[in-house]
Amino acid sequence: MGCESRLWAVLLGLLCSLAGADAPAEGNVYVPYSGIIKGTEGADPVRLLVSNETGRPMVCTAALAHWYSEDLGRAEPGASLDIMLWHDPETGVVNLINQTNDRMPVEAIWCGTAGDLSATRARIALPITAGPAPANVTRSCKSGPDGRFDCLGAEG
After folding, report:
1. CA–CA separation, 125 vs 153, rounded Å?
2. Which residue in 70, 94, 119, 128 is deepest, having the highest Cβ count within 10 Å?
3. Cα end-to-end distance, the chain, whole Å
4. What is the pLDDT of residues 39-72, one digit of tens each?
């Protein structure tokens, strides 16, 4: 078998192996992003107010499902961040709503010093439980003895 014949045999084999690669299993059609829930219907608003009682600028970030993150904002000392979240009472999932009205499940919210978030951050406790959630969650962030933030508060 010559070089040219081998090349055609390899190409034919490759073509045959790829011919059905994208064909869905019968009755099981994949539609990209088909599981994304849109809007706030059936979800309750939860206002998260995080005040910065440290002497440093504070930033907060949401860790979202699938290893994404979303910057929630910055607050100078003495200021606060006001963040609207949406709680699904059936599942307990807390969501942010993006610009295209998609629900983005929140796994955690972290607040810490701007420019040094990973070394100073504190996790903000969220009402991630099924059933009713508080309409307002207030957290006050202070500097701990080790320089890390300590964010405690009330719900109601």
Report:
1. 9
2. 94
3. 80
4. 999 999 999 999 999 999 999 999 998 788 999 9
